[in-house]
């Protein structure tokens, strides 16, 4: 079985080495993917000087082109975001805005450069909103050419008005853990199918 590659973009607001629940769920997804011969790397986006914009390169030291190169080399994109005010983090939204540039990038047959790439999502927060965040992120990723597998999202939401974060809540094997395991299995399966049989040109 051929080895696939995944890249996790952690969209926490916290720079390394601060503890991050988004970082944790991203790493859990990457770990689950290893059971399916997928190797992966993680980028905490706020550790890099990614500029606001909707182009491939905003210039003046923009770090996005280097991150984009890692995205384009992957078979599976993992995004992980916290919930803030019921929304994906501002960092996640910035990443989606930068991915908007892929609408202008096509191969020799006119397909978007992201066709054939699978995207999955991990969401964490202390309030309701995981379904809303998943819907927003998946719609944007699908718009720019990524393929979303069945059960492609995993999440954990703590009790409202409480302060326990995902990275403090201990193992959750029958809830988030089970969803993460299914996500990994379906994502790897779909990525292999697309790697062996790309979408036809329009």
Structural features, described:
- The protein is an alpha/beta fold.
- The protein has one domain: Rossmann fold (3-Layer(aba) Sandwich), CATH 3.40.50.
- Helices cover 34% and strands 19% of the residues.
- The chain is built from five helices and six strands, in the order βαβαββαβαβα.
- It has helices spanning 21-34, 64-72, 90-99, 130-143, 176-196; strands spanning 4-10, 38-44, 76-84, 87-88, 118-125, 153-157.
- Strands 1, 2, 3, 4, 5 and 6 form a six-stranded mixed sheet that branches.
- Helix 1 crosses helix 5 (176-196).
- The relative contact order is 0.19.
- The mean pLDDT is 95.
Q: How many strand units?
A: 6
CATH fold annotation: Rossmann fold
CATH class: Alpha Beta
> What is the CATH homology-level superfamily?
Flavodoxin domain
The domain count comes to: 1
Mean pLDDT: 95
pLDDT below 50 for ≥5 consecutive residues: which ranges? none
| Amount of beta strand | 15-25%
**Can you tell me the CATH architecture?**
3-Layer(aba) Sandwich
Spatial shape: globular
Structural class: alpha/beta
Largest sheet: 6 strands, mixed
| Total helical elements | 5
Question: Which percent range fits the helix content?
Answer: 25-40%
Q: Helix and strand succession?
A: EHEHEEHEHEH
Gyration radius over CA: 16 Å
Distance between the termini: 30 Å
Protein name: Flavodoxin family protein
Pfam family, one: FMN_red
Organism: Tenggerimyces flavus
Domain NADPH-dependent FMN reductase-like: 6-160
Task: Provide the descriptors you would attach to this structure in a database record.
alpha/beta, Flavoprotein-like_sf, 202 residues, six-stranded mixed sheet, FMN_Rdtase-like_dom, globular, Rossmann fold, Flavodoxin family protein
């Amino acid at each position: 079985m051929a080895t696939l590659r995944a890249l996790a973009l952690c969209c926490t607001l916290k720079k390394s080495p601060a503890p991050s629940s988004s970082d944790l769920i991203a790493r859990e997804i990457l770990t689950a993917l290893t059971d399916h011969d997928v190797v992966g790397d993680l980028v905490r986006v706020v550790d890099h000087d990614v500029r606001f914009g909707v182009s491939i390169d905003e210039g003046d030291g923009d770090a996005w082109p280097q991150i984009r190169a890692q995205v384009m080399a992957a078979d599976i994109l993992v995004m992980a975001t916290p919930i803030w005010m019921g929304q994906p983090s501002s960092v996640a939204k910035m990443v989606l805005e930068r991915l908007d540039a892929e609408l202008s990038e096509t191969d020799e047959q006119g397909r978007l450069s992201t066709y054939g790439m699978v995207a999955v999502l991990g969401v964490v927060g202390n309030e309701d909103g995981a379904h809303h965040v998943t819907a927003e992120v998946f719609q944007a990723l699908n718009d720019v050419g990524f393929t979303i597998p069945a059960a492609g999202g995993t999440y954990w939401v703590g009790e409202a008005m409480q302060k326990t974060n995902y990275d403090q809540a201990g193992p959750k094997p029958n809830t988030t853990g089970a969803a993460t395991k299914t996500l990994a299995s379906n994502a790897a399966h779909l990525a292999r199918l697309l790697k062996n049989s790309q979408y036809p040109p329009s």
